[in-house]
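Morning run. Coffee first, then this:
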Amino acid sequence: MAKAPAVVVKNIHVSPHRVPNNGSGKVRVSAMVFTPVDEARINEVAVEVPFLQEGSRVAMAFHEAEGITASREGVYSCSFDIPLLADPGEYALPIMATDAKGTTGTGYGSLRVEYRSPAYSGTITSPSHQHTLDRISGSPATGGNRVEALVNGDESLEKRISLIQMARTQINLQTYALSADGRCGRLVDALLEKATQGVQVNLILNMTSQLVVSPLTAVRFGLQKVGKDLQDLAKEVDETLEGRQGIQEMLKDVQNIFQRLGRGPHGANVILADEVSILGEDRKGLEVGRRSRKWLEKMASDQKQLTRTDRKRMSEWYMGFKGPGGLPALPLLTYAVHEKMMVVDGNKAIVGGRNLEDRYFTHWIDKDVYLEGPVVRNIQEGFSRTWESFCRNLKREVTVAPLLETLGPAGDIEARFVQSRPWMGEYATLENLVTAIQMAKKRICASSQYLVLPDSLLRDALLDAARRGVEVHILMNSYTTGQEVGFSGGYLVSLNYCEALIEAGIRIYEINGPTEEEMPKPYLHVKEFLIDGLWAAIGSFNLSIRSCYIESENLVNIHDAHFVQAQEEIFWNRVRKDATEITREYLKEQREKFRGKLAMARYLDLFY
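And here it is:
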């Protein structure tokens, strides 16, 4: 059967072919368009521009002087600006044409977006720079805040419990995982007690990580539709590990526990965030989160490339570690909520890196910030917006009372709350951090669990800063401390991406750990970025592709030299006393030592 003729799109020109992403780039696209259908007329010609978040299709105009007016066949063209902070890379630009008879055709142009930093002058805390960060972050900095760093684990836990016990109206809590075991059992008991007293308790938990860490905690808060959630998780796990024996059986056991206990009596509101709550049943987020799609597709492609033997090895690698409760610590293969925040009565908040399990408050190294003042209103709004979005997708009618009264000053620090939701096309934490790095003049001190940065906007920003003469120092975990989360996968993946950074002059350090196998490891979980001794960003954001494009994240920007320099002192004390620098020679030794595992680690970068 002969193939139906298509509208012809040819002689495609993209000028210039290489453009910068510093806000100054502009592109013109032109093409010749003809229809094979007699007496038909070209109806529409448009170019699809993948990095334009709002309205990615740009209409192309017909040039009457260079075509046939009656059929509108001939030259079409359009121009568009390259957005500031567009992702660098090579892009295919599909040009789609349709005639009045419904015949269509497509041609392709190509364009390369190149990283280039704007010429920022002055300090990062100057009014003009803060105005830029306000605009890019979609959130204004506000003065009059009290900001307290919660470095010590015991103090951070007690601060949370104290705030819960003082609550009078509402507690909003979002975390990656919440455990009722050990010390955190006191926190769970306090939340449940407040719920029985009539305080509105609203929890957002990430489904996959929560069911791995502590499924019974979710039951205690009155989780609904548990059976279906667990069946869906079992299916996802089976698909990931190709039906490895034992997964279904373990989840069935947990499901039976859920069925016996049923709905809890306490009246807390819980959303266990999964793909339905995040994307909705129509899964529109897969289209809106255009920048994420490249990485999600890469993850799926990488998995398909694995041989059956490698799949088995990866399965055994993951299954070698059992998380709390005996369930496997599985990677996340899709969008997830990774933020950690708590807002009490709409006027006090904690934001940071800690999940609510005992290890985050005992031997792990982590950091939160306690906040009072006008910035808390923005944190409350951020939680409420996520809650309402998830409720709509789940068709639930549970409203979070707004509690959005104007908050008076509680201190003298300027702060900004920044939040990202990649499935909604919102990448504010990434763009906030990249812009701050571009504004750095002297030094950047960063702490992150791992360093998973293939070619990407954030990686280019760090490389550019180092080449501009900014001292860049990054602290991450070692192979030893990485054993705390199973198999040091994050460290092994990071080794694949350290070389280019070190070659550019970036100094990378890894946390030392005890050599005794049975000793708890001081796992570094801090997510912190300190710039020029003037500006800090602390929250849930790692130096990783998942934080950039796949997981929801948050950061608190703090503009206060005294606060930032105190955090720098902690950073440098940690580096001097407890860390080893990854030099070129040391990196070569480590890559040789773990050569067999590093090949497999290349398929794991989007799990971190």
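DSSP finds 20 helices and 27 strands in the chain. Good start to the day.
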